[in-house]
């Protein structure tokens, strides 16, 4: 999928709009506050209740509301983020990195991605767009993580491993060095991935064993 790149360098936002008003949006909003990045409000197509302050609510998404302010997709569901990325007409926000996370100067992190507290993206690693690198997750050197992924808290992606687009990796799971998982894989919490997995595989266990294969909706 072609990606629209933000014209703003990392952390040089003048302001951001969040798309989503739930729990993950609250975590992102707090990171913006720590970084001194103003949040102009949030879109949400649901009826609530929202965890963000009510005064920030801008209503359902509209391309006519503050059209030049970058939007960050602030929900945890990979499929929803992927689908909304095709709908949003605003520019997308540059990566948002918690001040207590570490991203190597030689690493690459694409637009719309959020790196939460304690996470590490090591040397020459690459993380795609609109991905969540959650609390304490580690992307080791030369590893690649695709777009629209969610690395749950404590996940370790070993050196030179590859994670395809739209993958979900559960809390504390580990991909050993040079292991690859294809697009749309779901890896259960605490799993140990020792070998390559084809696209759309659901796997869990220690070591992880494939349970089923099904395409994304």
Helix-strand string: EHEEEHEEEEEEEEEEEEEEEEEEE
Radius of gyration, whole Å: 17 Å
The strand order across the widest sheet is 5-8-11-14-17-20-22-23
How far apart are the termini?
16 Å
CATH architecture field of the largest domain: 3 Solenoid
CATH structural fold name of the largest domain: UDP N-Acetylglucosamine Acyltransferase, domain 1
Portion in beta strands: 25-35%
Largest sheet: 8 strands, mixed
Oligomerization: single chain
Number of DSSP helical runs: 2
Overall geometry: globular
Low-confidence stretches: 1-11
Q: Give the CATH level 1 class of the largest domain.
A: Mainly Beta
Which percent bin holds the helix content? 10-25%
The whole-number mean of residue pLDDT values reads: 92
Broad structural category: mainly beta
CATH superfamily of the largest domain: Hexapeptide repeat proteins
| Tally of separate domains | 2
Query: Quick one: how many beta strands?
Result: 23
Walkthrough of the structure:
The structure is a single chain. With 217 residues, this protein is mainly β. It is 11% helix and 28% strand. It has 2 domains: 16-86, Rossmann fold (3-Layer(aba) Sandwich); 95-203, 3 Solenoid (UDP N-Acetylglucosamine Acyltransferase, domain 1). The protein has an 8-stranded mixed β-sheet, with helices on one face. Strands 6-9-12-15-18-21 form a 6-stranded parallel β-sheet, with no helix packed on it. The longest helix has 13 residues, at 23-35.
